[in-house]
Design brief:
Largest sheet: 8 strands, mixed
CATH superfamily of the largest domain: P-loop containing nucleotide triphosphate hydrolases
Structural class: alpha/beta
Protein name: MinD/ParA family protein
InterPro entries: AAA_dom (IPR025669), CheY-like_superfamily (IPR011006), P-loop_NTPase (IPR027417), ParA/MinD_ATPase (IPR050625)
Pfam families: AAA_31
Bound molecules: adenosine-5'-diphosphate, magnesium ion
GO molecular function, one term: ATP hydrolysis activity
Order of helices and strands: EHEHEHEHEHEHEHHHEEHEHEHEHEHHHH
Shape: elongated
Organism: Arthrobacter oryzae
Strand order of the largest sheet: 8-9-7-10-6-11-12-13
Length: 392
């Protein structure tokens, strides 16, 4: 998922661009007179990847824009759609334009060229972050193909456990946008939710963003789900990506609780997740679902660089063994979370087990999970450009 700005007054070109890039990317129209400063104002949290200048924009304006951005935000890649001549291409490249593409190029060609540009933008962003020593936190995404298997239980306990190790440096984000229950699982009464953070003025500035988080007594911060399920429809995957990106610059750990399945948000955050935590129940549909999910993610080249499988509700009466699960999923189970009498109570009371430390067989497993991610170390590295290129 990359963010493209279309600088054009031609509805026809804008349509061609949007259709060529398809739903996997965000295309946003900007006024055809936009300057480098206007583009920078839209570049919240470094979210703009590519500016595509339409065939109706004067070459001089494009060159000035490319030169300006090259100086102010060199990770933003400028591409020009124009009928090319050797002279124009040369002048364009000299000004900082990355590529010149025929405006009526077939959709697939256009998409490939633009995804190449987005990949360039990402590697420039990464290089810049490394150069300035800008530290990014670990993004731990808790996921499962099915609901009710313990994602929220795992994510809230993990986040609270990490907050004890790294107080004020952990944030949990409820990405189960429709039916999220992180607030209830942590007994929080949020003043603001993710809707306020991504739809309001806070989406602009990471300083303001912190004011939209709800503090928990463990030292954890929470970005809670919208109050009304209908609000979820207003939130776009790209806005979620920008938010997670911003939070990862502020916190050592960003723990993501998600809705079941591989929704658009989950696919979008998988690009940012440094670690995937997969929760699976002791039942065949759940285990098959995980296996199929892994298959799809491998094909899309979206598997996070490091993964943990949590097998939940382990007991001796399910008719399945851990070895059966491992054989189906094709990888070892990392954490076994036993069926517990206390966990449903702790969910209902809104006090994660790790927080009150009540004696329970599940507590040791949850602590083992926390220990797997602490202390804060560098996240596993990933190869962004390759991944981007493979999403198409
Ligand atoms: N190991 C477990 N033993 C007993 N109950 C559990 C266990 N894990 C989760 N639960 C309970 O199952 C219910 C669903 O868990 P939840 O974490 O909300 O799942 P999800 O977020 O995947 O929908 C909750 O009431 C929770 O307390
Ligand atoms: Mg949940």
């Amino acid at each position: 998922m990359s963010r493209f700005l279309a600088l054009t007054a031609s509805p026809e070109f804008e349509r061609h661009l949007t259709a060529s890039l398809g739903p996997a990317h965000v295309v946003q129209a900007v006024a055809s007179g936009a300057t480098a400063a206007d583009i920078l104002a839209l570049n919240t949290g470094g979210s703009v990847d590519v500016v595509v200048c339409g065939p109706d924009i004067e070459a001089e304006q494009v060159f000035a824009l490319a030169t300006g951005l090259d100086r102010l935000a060199p990770d933003i890649v400028v591409v020009l759609a124009a009928v090319t001549s050797a002279e124009l291409t040369l002048a364009a490249m000299r000004s900082g334009v990355r590529d010149v593409i025929a405006p009526d190029a077939p959709a697939e060609l256009l998409r490939h060229a633009l995804e190449r540009a987005a990949a360039t933008s990402l590697s420039r962003k990464q290089a810049a972050a490394e150069e300035t020593g800008q530290k990014r936190g670990r993004v731990l995404a808790v996921m499962s193909p099915k609901g009710g298997v313990g994602k929220t239980t795992v994510s809230t306990n993990l986040a609270v456990g990490l907050a004890k190790v790294a107080p004020k440096d952990v944030v949990i984000v409820d990405l189960d946008l429709q039916f999220g229950d992180v607030a209830s699982g942590l007994s929080l009464d949020p003043q603001y939710t993710i809707s306020d953070a991504v739809l309001g003025a806070a989406s602009i500035d990471s300083m303001v963003l912190k004011a939209f988080l709800t503090p928990h007594s463990s030292g954890l911060y929470a970005m809670c789900a919208p109050r009304m399920p209908a609000e979820a429809d207003l939130i776009k995957a790209a806005q979620v990506t920008t938010l997670i990106n911003q939070l990862s610059l502020e916190f050592a750990y960003v723990v993501l609780d998600t809705a079941p399945g591989l929704s658009e948000e989950v696919l979008a955050i998988l690009e940012l997740a440094t670690e995937g935590i997969w929760v699976v129940g002791m039942d065949i549909p759940s285990i098959r679902g995980l296996n199929n999910g892994f298959e799809v993610l491998r094909q899309l080249d979206l598997m996070p660089p490091s993964n943990t499988v949590v097998l939940n509700f382990t007991d001796r009466h399910s008719g399945l063994t851990v070895a059966d699960v491992e054989a189906t999923v094709g990888r070892p189970v990392d954490i076994q979370l036993p069926r517990s009498k206390t966990l449903p109570f702790s969910t209902n009371a809104g006090i994660p087990l790790v927080h009150d430390g009540r004696r329970d067989p599940a507590l040791k497993s949850l602590r083992d999970l926390v220990a797997k991610f602490s202390p804060a170390g560098p996240p596993p590295s990933r190869k962004f450009s390759q991944r981007r290129a493979a999403i198409s």
